[in-house]
Design brief:
Blueprint lengths: L1 E5 L2 E7 L9 E6 L8 H10 L1 H12 L11 E5 L7 E6 L10 H18 L3 E4 L11 H18 L6 E6 L2 H13 L7
Parallel strand pairs: 2-7, 3-5, 3-6, 6-7
Antiparallel strand pairs: 1-2, 4-5
């Protein structure tokens, strides 16, 4: 595990399956419908059980009738997951012309804002944007690490630990390099 501190927030990377992570909250790389999909989104919906889909349908029926906007985040219970909450965020889709890095960074900061509002002290992220939405692993890692570090400076002592749970060794290596380049230094 590579680790660093972004002020009071401990930031680490690990190889693993985000659906098995014990954390206060995990982040879902969702689509705007919130009704499940492929990749991380499909895996989280499958592992959380049918109550997650029901909760997302309720969000769509009530507060998000047009879906969750790109770069925003919303929480549901974790249901059958080891995490208490799932924070859903929608990354910008480069294939659809959504190429603003600030929108990608917003996925991480808004997820942290929602985690803070919930009182979550530990949060696990996947590589939001680095899958079917077409962001390069380097761009996704730099946006993620930069956003988390900036958020931690602005809101110290709110979230204790941010974990990047990555599904492949090459992707983890890219996140480790971004963490080191951000001046974080290696840890564990």
């Amino acid at each position: 595990m590579i680790g660093a501190y972004g002020r009071s927030v401990r930031i680490t990377t690990e190889l693993g399956d985000i659906t098995r992570v014990e954390a206060d909250a995990i982040v879902n790389a969702a689509n705007s419908t919130l009704l499940g999909g492929g990749g991380v989104d499909g895996a989280i919906h499958a592992a959380a059980g049918p109550r997650l889909l029901a909760a997302c349908r309720e969000l769509r029926r009530t507060t998000l009738p047009d879906g969750l906007p790109v770069g925003d985040a919303v929480a549901t219970p974790g249901f059958d997951l080891p995490a208490r909450w799932v924070i859903h965020t929608v990354g910008p889709n480069r294939h659809a012309g959504q190429t603003d890095p600030a929108a990608l960074a917003s996925c991480f900061t808004r997820s942290l804002d929602v985690a803070a509002d919930l009182g979550a002290r530990t949060l696990a992220f996947p590589a939001v944007g680095a899958g079917v939405y077409g962001w390069s692993p380097d761009d996704a890692a730099n946006a993620a690490i930069g956003a988390v570090r900036a958020w931690a400076v602005a809101r110290p002592h709110v979230v204790d630990h941010v974990r990047f749970v990555l599904f492949s060794a090459p992707l983890r290596a890219v996140f480790d390099a971004a963490l080191a380049a951000a001046g974080a230094g290696a840890g564990e």
